[in-house]
Amino acid sequence: MLMLIDDADLRNIEELYSKYPYDGVTTNPTILSKTGNPDPMDQLKQIRSLIPSDAMLHAQVLSVETEDMVREAKYMVSVLGKDTFIKVPVTENGLKAISILSSENIRVTATAIYGTMSAFLAAKAGAEFLAPYVNRLDNLGYNGVQTALDIHMMVKAAGYKAEVLGASFKNAQQVIDMGKGGIGAVTVSSDLLKSLAFNGIAENAVKDFIRDFESCCGEGKTMLDF
């Protein structure tokens, strides 16, 4: 399962990449607005230069009309590189834009997915990733994880190559359940990623090992001293 960082803060991205090789970064207009940078393309370019060259970068269009979405997407790719994944909301106009962009070999992530059939249609239109909002679905009274799993099963049964990119998580268990179900990718906030990978229990266990070892062998000693 691919694991991406759902953040546009350069410090958070750099910190996480310094500890583990994640698969890329996803952004959206809200996340970009939180950086305080009034030039979102500049922020995206900085992210692109910060992460490995083979890492994915996902960025969203703001236009709502099909023709404008296509034009905006092409501009973003011209600035950020052809391997940028353009996030297009699965609206009526968005589905048409996905079809046009994918036919022109522009990589698309279908976003703002709130149902199985909208995701299926996005896969049929050529999207490479399908991003259901897991926690937002829960808040609407649906089972967000199950919806993502249903999308995965429908798309794979039809033979499409699109992968589910689970988004909007509130806890670690949701992410784990996605992995157990064979979901292709998740994008997770920096804080939740840190809690998934690095926890105080392991740190405390290491401290106990060191204390016990030093009580026998001497303070500050490691295996290199013997």
What is the count of helical runs? 11
Oligomer: single chain
Determine the N-to-C terminus distance.
41 Å
CATH superfamily: Aldolase class I
Molecular shape: globular
Alpha-beta content class? alpha/beta
* CATH architecture label name: Alpha-Beta Barrel
Mean pLDDT: 96
Major pleated sheet: 8 strands, parallel, barrel
Radius of gyration (Å): 20 Å
Organism: Anaerostipes caccae
Main location: cytoplasm
GO molecular function, one term: aldehyde-lyase activity
Protein name: Fructose-6-phosphate aldolase 1
Keywords summarizing the entry:
226 residues, alpha/beta, TIM Barrel, 8-stranded parallel β-barrel, 11 helices, schiff base, TSA/FSA_arc/bac, Transaldolase_AS, lyase
List the helices and strands and how they pair.
Elements: E1 2-6, H1 10-19, E2 24-26, H2 29-33, H3 40-50, E3 56-60, H4 66-80, E4 85-89, H5 92-103, E5 108-113, H6 116-125, E6 129-132, H7 134-139, H8 144-157, E7 163-166, H9 172-180, E8 185-188, H10 190-197, H11 200-217
Helix pairs in contact: 4-5, 5-6, 6-8
Give a concise summary.
By secondary structure, this protein is an alpha/beta fold. The chain has helices at 10-19, 29-33, 40-50, 66-80, 92-103, 116-125, 134-139, 144-157, 172-180, 190-197, 200-217, and strands spanning 2-6, 24-26, 56-60, 85-89, 108-113, 129-132, 163-166, 185-188.
Describe this structure in words.
- By secondary structure, this protein is α/β, with parallel strands linked by helices.
- It has a single domain, classed as Aldolase class I (TIM Barrel).
- Helices cover 52% and strands 16% of the residues.
- It is built from eleven helices and eight strands.
- The chain has an eight-stranded parallel β-barrel with strand order 1-2-3-4-5-6-7-8, surrounded by seven helices.
- The N and C termini lie far apart (41 Å).
- The mean pLDDT is 96.
- One of its GO terms (molecular function) is aldehyde-lyase activity.
- Its main location: cytoplasm.
- Keywords: Lyase, Schiff base.
